[in-house]
Write a structure and sequence with these properties.
alpha/beta, Arc Repressor Mutant, subunit A, D-Maltodextrin-Binding Protein, domain 2, eight-stranded mixed beta sheet, two-stranded antiparallel sheet, 39% helix
């Protein structure tokens, strides 16, 4: 007995409309006209003998039968798409597409990437940066490095670096007109803040028992952590640094930690990849290299309890 199989092109169009909730968006994704989408939906409804969508003035909605059908065939299309992408990647040797936070990419990943390229000259890595949550269903990304609590449904998450923070500054501030030696001395120095990490100073000061210093009258805010750290290097004030990302600056003495207390916050950097049956070989190689580099990162004893 032959399988009951509807015409595949109308079925593909139905899946797109059902997933996107719009004839217009489906047409844009499939690079066809809206009228072509409408014709294909009419064909699949005629073939099945049922009404799959309710046409309304504001758009379309799935009927109960249409919703049930979409629930059954949607995962199959997602699996076909993932399998095709994996095959193309493995056979064509395509680039490894990695998305990361800008600070992590600039301060940690890019500094180590030459080692990976030297060990694997045949593999191409493409790095993009963004702070928005990753959506593997919509974005053509193999791996993502995200900052948060590890809760990303639909993704496989692996913890990379803890968020350990401490004040950092240029060495000159320790011996300037107002030497930075005690927490009380912070009142005489400008505090540097990153727009996306505004709670760093209050969190650290609360953890060391001096929350009132968070009301510091002289401060400067920057649009990114990278600019904030550069301001600290240039002697503009004292920043809160993510210690794991500033290892080279601290080793070279470009930045110093004026105080011993390192505070561990509840968040971390995570490596995310989509849930799938198999991972392309080149992506597996990059993932294993990244995790090996993380394991080789020296751990720093925290002098302060975690938040």
């Amino acid at each position: 007995m032959s399988r009951a199989m509807p015409p595949l092109n109308p079925l593909r169009v139905f899946e797109a409309v059902a997933r996107l909730g719009s004839f217009t968006k489906a047409a844009e994704e499939l690079y066809v006209s809206q009228s072509a989408v409408s014709r294909q939906i009419s064909l699949i409804e005629e073939y099945l003998g049922v009404k799959l969508f309710e046409r309304e003035q504001r758009g379309v909605t799935l009927t109960a039968i249409g919703h049930a059908y979409q629930q059954d065939i949607g995962p199959a299309f997602a699996q076909i798409s993932a399998a095709t992408q994996n095959l193309l990647t493995s056979t064509r040797g395509g680039p490894i597409k990695v998305r990361a936070y800008t600070t992590f990419a600039a301060k940690w990943l890019m500094r180590r990437l030459p080692e990976f390229q030297e060990a694997h000259p045949d593999l191409e890595v493409r790095i993009s940066t963004n702070v928005t949550p990753i959506d593997f269903q919509k974005e053509n990304i193999d791996l993502a490095i995200q900052f948060g609590d590890g809760n990303w449904p639909g993704s496989v998450c692996e913890r990379l670096l803890d968020d350990e923070i401490a004040p950092v500054c240029a060495p000159a501030l320790l011996k300037g007109k107002v030497p930075l030696k005690t927490l009380e001395d912070l009142k005489q120095h400008r505090l540097l803040h990153s727009h996306y990490r505004k709670s760093d100073w209050p969190d650290w000061l609360s953890a060391v028992g001096r929350p009132e210093l968070a009301e510091h009258h002289e401060s400067m805010e920057f649009s990114s952590s990278i600019l904030t750290y550069q301001a600290a290097v240039d002697g503009l004030g004292v920043a809160i640094g993510q210690i794991a990302l500033l290892d080279q600056e601290l080793e070279k003495g470009i930045l110093v930690c004026p105080f011993e207390q390192i505070v561990k916050r509840p968040f971390a950097y995570y490596l995310l990849q989509p849930e799938r049956h198999s991972t392309p070989r080149n992506v597996r190689i990059f993932r294993e290299w990244l995790l090996d580099k993380i394991r080789a990162t020296p751990s720093r004893p925290s002098a302060q309890a975690s938040l």
